[in-house]
Known about the structure:
The complex is a heterodimer. Chain A is α/β, with parallel strands linked by helices. Chain A contains 7 helices and 10 strands. Chain A has a 6-stranded mixed sheet, with helices on both faces. In chain A, a hairpin with a 2-residue loop joins strand 9 and strand 10. In chain A, helix 3 packs parallel to helix 5 (139-151) and helix 4 (110-123) packs across helix 5. Chain B folds into 2 domains: 2-51 and 161-286, no CATH class; 55-152, Alpha-Beta Plaits (2-Layer Sandwich), CATH 3.30.70.3040. Chain B is built from 10 helices and 4 strands. In chain B, helix 2 (18-52) packs across helix 9 and helix 9 (211-246) runs antiparallel to helix 10 (260-286). Chain B is elongated, with a radius of gyration of 30 Å. Classes of the chains: A alpha/beta, B alpha+beta. At the A-B interface, helix 2 and helix 3 of A face helix 1 and helix 8 of B.
Amino acid sequence: MIQFDKVHLRFDSGISLRNLNISIAKKEFVYLFGESGCGKSSILKMIYLELVPNAGVVTVLDQVTSYAKRKDIAKIRQRIGMAFQDSKLLGDRDIYSNIALPLELQGMKALEVRQKVVARSDELGLRSRLSHYPHELSAGEQQRVSLARAMVISPDILLADEPTAHLDDNTAADVLEWLWKINAQGTTIILATHNKLLTKSDPSRTLTIVAGEVVEDRVK
Amino acid sequence: MKLSYIIREGVIGIQRARMPFMISVFSVMIAILSVGIGIFAVDNGLQYIGDLQATYDLEVFLENEVSQSDTRELSKIIAEYPGILRMDYLSKADAAALYNTEFGEDVLSLLDDNPLPSSFRITFEENYRTAPYIQSFIHATEVVSGVDEVMFKKDLFDRVQGIMSFIYMMATIVLFMVILSTVFLTANNLRLMILARYEFIETVRLLGASDFMVKAPFFLEGGILGFIGSLMSVVIIASLEKLLEYYGIIDLPVRILNHPEVILGLLLFGVSLASLGVLKAVRRMLRFVS
Lengths: 220, 290
């Protein structure tokens, strides 16, 4: 489903990813673990085609990302849900409209959009917040909205960048449980985190990244 | 449903960014107002100069003893000549009456006989109103039986035609420059409006929107703001006309309200200017969004 072959990525700032060889199969739950700045977000960005490697090949959903045209990029992104680290919620519209946006972009009917948005917001405890605006929500709530928006399209792959960073332990546990449920329904999940406790308590596959290199690929 | 998204997002976009939208509407209004007033001023100017020219282009005088059949024959020849807009026959009695009106003297009381000749006053269509064409008409009619003389005020005609051509040329250059600068200013304003929406463009693209789905609501928004801006400018020009008429400052020969094709042209220009300007700005921004 996702394949990194000898991937190198260089930035002007000097930070880089070196010789990445990663293979992620369908329905896998994978942690990308590492300190801040080690390159976790860059790996996620390469998966949803915001970045392309300087060398090597990244293949996502059977598409070599370096050769993807803008049209292909849009199509692939419609099959990937992305919960951004900075939420990327649109401040000019309420939470309902934020979550509904990917469905509307795909041309779904209003009634179907409403059903899906309400269902996802119920699962993440956001029902009472649907008429609020992003600035009225806490950072943790914004992250959950970002997750709801990513999952509302029922994607093949869910990418989550530090989704529990601003959550208290109980809410973080609830979100993780929800992600497991999603994964059990067939969605591949890749979760970037710097929280060691999270990976320790979870039997999922963990890729440990240090200074742009995968130093450990572990399944408990 | 995608269409409803485009319409809704286009309309909502206006509500969400009212100030940049209003600034852009104002910018389009100024652009169309400049163009509209330019056209309005040039049209009226040219019309005024045209009116200064004689009400007829030339006069064909007939011989004193011309027969009715020769007059009819000449009338037929003139009427069939291409490019004749109007032909008025002045009999000897008409000429005497005109003399009386213009000079306040009854020519028949001064002289026993009416010495004034009958004539045809001829006006050419706009496209045929050139000195060489009129000269060729004179050569053709001079030789017709019964024609005494053909009077054509060539110097005055040439001078007025020269002034009109000069004004037309200068107005075209100035209008072109005005259009160019207003298009540039409007495009710049629209770019700033779109720049304020970078977050939206980046986010929807990351959420899987195709370039078309990103551009379409903005294109619609541009069309709406262009329509409002140009409609406002048309209303202002029409109001100016009414004011000038009401206060009797100047009697305008050309009025925009009498020319729906000009109104439609200005509206179309405003809508195209704004929607294409917005489209260009979004396309440019999309280069920075993967």
